[in-house]
Each structure stands twice: as C-alpha cells, then as structure tokens.
Amino acid sequence: MAQTGEVSADQRLYLDDLQVGQRFKSATHVIDAAQIKAYAREFDPQPFHLDDGAAQSTLFAGLAASGWHTAAITMRLMVESGLPLAGGIIGSGGEISWPKPTRPGDVLSVISEIVEVTPSRSRPDRGTVKVRSETHNQRGEIVQTLLARLIVPRRQA
Amino acid sequence: MAQTGEVSADQRLYLDDLQVGQRFKSATHVIDAAQIKAYAREFDPQPFHLDDGAAQSTLFAGLAASGWHTAAITMRLMVESGLPLAGGIIGSGGEISWPKPTRPGDVLSVISEIVEVTPSRSRPDRGTVKVRSETHNQRGEIVQTLLARLIVPRRQA
User: Fold this and answer.
1) Nearest-CA distance A60 → chain B (Å)
2) pTM for this structure?
3) Which of B89, B71, B104 is nearest to A75 (CA)?
4) Tens of pLDDT, residues B141-153
5) Which of residues 35-64 of A touch B (CB under 8 A)?
6) A97 interfacial to chain B (CB closer than 8 Å)
7) ipTM of the predicted structure?
C-alpha cells in the first residue's frame, strides 16, 4: 500500500529506510486556466499556454499547461506530501516525459515508486535513489512520468 | 557559428530547415535571490531554495535555485531567443541534469545544438528533432543539460 500525506520530521526517510518497490502517494493540486497563463507569461510564453482562442489552432487544440509547469506542480506535491525524504528532495537529474497535456481543471496527484537504492562508495554519509514518479489527472491518465536520480542521506551510525 | 537572438516569424525554422550540428545561442537572464525564493515558495519550498541562512548547512552550502527553476528560465530563453522553430517549442520529454547549482547573481544563457532530425513516417506534416541544450552561467560552467525531443512541423509541399 502506498504511504500517503504529510509526515513529521522524525518520520522522514533515510537511504537505509528505502527499499525497491516502496510507493508513496501525494495530495492533489487543482490547476486552472489562470495558473496556466500566469506560469506561461513568466516562463513559457507560447500561444498554446497563454490564450484559449489561439490554442485551438495549435497541436494542443486548446489551452494546455507548459510541461515545465506540470513538473513544477509535481515537485511541490512531492515536497509537501509525496516523498518524505530526510534532507529533502535533491535531484541531480533524470528522464521526463509528458504523454498527455495538462488541462485547466485537471486534478493532479503524484505516485512515486523507489526503483533503485545505491549507497555511495566514496561518501559513507549518502547514496543515490532512483524514483519513478507518475503524475496523474482525475481521469487516471498520466500527464507526466519522471525517473529522477536523488541524493539521500544515510542514518548516522 | 551559432545563430543568435530573436527572429521574425518568416525566419522561423521548419523540420526541413534543420540539420544535425546546427547551433543556436540565446540571450541572457540574470537570476537573483528574490526570484529564487519566489519560485521556491510557489513550487519547491525547501530550505536550500528559500532561506540564505538555512541553506548554509545543507548539501548546497548556500542559497541555490530549484532545478525546475533553472529549467523554466532555460525554456523562456529558448522560446524568446534561443531556438526559432515554426510552431513553437513543443517537447514530448527528454533527459535533464543539473551538474552545478544555479546561484543568486548568475547570468544564464543557453546554447542549443540539433542532434537528430527524424521525419514522421505516419504524419507527413511533422517530425521529431532531438536538441541538446546547455545552460551556462557567466563563468562558463554548465548548470543544466537538456536533451529534448521536440515536435516540429514540415514546410507545406
């Protein structure tokens, strides 16, 4: 069963607590047209993210969130409720894909699964964890997949 | 030589205009602590992105931008000046890494190179392009690499 929701600081997980197959489920975030356009004005000013009318005649056939906006909301959900790691969520990179657009009114949530746990050979205080995070909308469709490499501290001996 | 700066609509590039090895250079963006904290409050509320003092005792040893903020600024630079594609910049995903943190005062710019051009077999009006984009700071250090898959329209026959 997936762990859900916010946890207190002493429940946060170290590398030693993580196992392949562990799953975590975030809270939800409702995205609306105003958020989509505000993000786009600041970071991705293209017609299909800014204007409902102009978006109709594009590949998206309607207003869609920037993929980077979906990534940003995913990160917020993971930080606040989706992946309670000691030391926070610190990524060195990963693979991302957006199989479907995020639309106004979508209710987003993130399911994360631990897929690899690797203690560092050179640094006994930490390791690397690979986490696959799927961002779902309210219809169960996946709008983003992220396979992230995270740096996670070990418990003090 | 890399192409630089904004172009008019009739100079925008279709799949047919792109070749492996073509390079493009964006304008610059100066990031400051206020931008880093504002982004973090909205999308990545962790101490190392929010508070100079708290950031000192973390892995980052000082305030650092969220990787997703670096990605967002990179996107804005590419949209406005860094990659003049017909139809805009529409990505289906890619690989991202953050080899170094983005810091307050950094002057960011993006160099993009076409690494693969693939006409669609099923859709004669478009194709896929792989673009490697490096985001540099003012010291020439790479703070982000992105290998993105983009959907690019073909010229009408």
Assistant:
1) 10
2) 0.94
3) B71
4) 999 999 999 999 9
5) 42-48, 58-59
6) yes
7) 0.94
